[in-house]
Specification:
The protein has about 220 residues and is an alpha/beta fold. It is about 35% helix and about 20% strand. The protein has one domain: Alpha-Beta Barrel (TIM Barrel). The chain has seven helices and eight strands; from the N terminus they run βαβαβαβαββαβαβα. It has an eight-stranded parallel β-sheet. Helix 3 links the parallel strand 3 and strand 4. Helix 5 runs parallel beside helix 6. The model has no long low-confidence stretch (mean pLDDT about 95). It binds D-xylitol-5-phosphate and zinc ion. The site of D-xylitol-5-phosphate (DX5) has 20 residues, from strand 2. The site of zinc ion has 6 residues, from strand 2.
Length: about 220
């Protein structure tokens, strides 16, 4: 069964605390936390402190941080202090991809890179030995609530094939516009984590706990 990773960018700051509590009480133990700096992407989202807030409320949960920033290296000490568990950055956001991956691991966190829709999956080949996971973008980064881009499932299949042929056992996180139908196809391909947003967990008629139950029953046999 793929991991359910709700994208906290979908929450209004006004209701952040009690929605997070609702997610926790529904059994969610993995959170996708989008940090944006207004430079790498033309938007601002959650600040690094959110990681500390999430870990204070849900100490057992995994805080998976998706950095959409220039100069990801400069965020790592702060993220480590806040208790981040997984940290990823965009492949084209730094000239020092290997150094940044190693710096994440040296701080005791899982290291990931993020692949944009216009980047070939082969761009990962030079850094595979330093990778714990890949965040595969199926929308352009920067905004929650976008539609899954056409052609993304085929690209995702290429990434899964590359993982099998390379012998490197990194995890794959699918991020952007994931619906139940898309999630099922992705799980069949071997995707490990589904970032769930507006189409699966938030703004659902059965509320957050109903939506989490639906996720669990939908993927139960996978
Ligand atoms: C987009 C973010 C996503 C997004 C996912 O830049 O990386 O994590 O918030 O949520 P949905 O699928 O609702 O867009
Ligand atoms: Zn994200």
């Amino acid at each position: 069964m793929p991991i359910n990773a709700p994208s906290l960018a979908n929450l209004s700051l006004v209701e952040f605390g009690w929605r997070l509590t609702e997610l926790k009480e529904s059994g969610v133990d993995f959170f996708h936390i989008d940090l944006m700096d207004g430079h790498y992407v033309p938007n601002l989202c959650l600040p690094p402190r959110t990681v500390g807030d999430v870990k204070a409320l849900c100490p057992e949960a995994i805080a998976e941080v998706h950095l959409m920033v220039d100069d990801p290296l400069s965020y790592l000490d702060e993220l480590q202090q806040y208790g981040a568990d997984w940290v990823s950055f965009h492949l084209d956001s730094t000239r020092f991809v290997r150094r940044t991956l190693s710096a994440i691991r040296e701080r005791g966190m899982k290291a990931g890179v993020v692949l944009n829709p216009s980047q070939p999956v082969e761009a990962l080949l030079p850094v595979l030995p330093w990778l714990d996971y890949v965040v595969f973008m199926s929308v352009e980064p920067g905004f929650a609530g976008q539609k899954f881009l056409p052609g993304s499932m085929e690209r995702l299949a290429s990434l899964c094939a590359l993982r099998s042929s390379s012998g490197n056992d990194f995890k794959i996180v699918l991020d952007g516009g994931v619906t139940y139908e898309i999630g099922k196809q992705a799980a069949e391909l071997g995707v490990d984590v589904l970032v769930t947003g507006i189409y699966m967990i938030f703004a659902q008629p059965d509320g957050i706990s109903g939506a989490v139950k639906r996720f669990n029953s939908c993927f139960h046999n996978q």
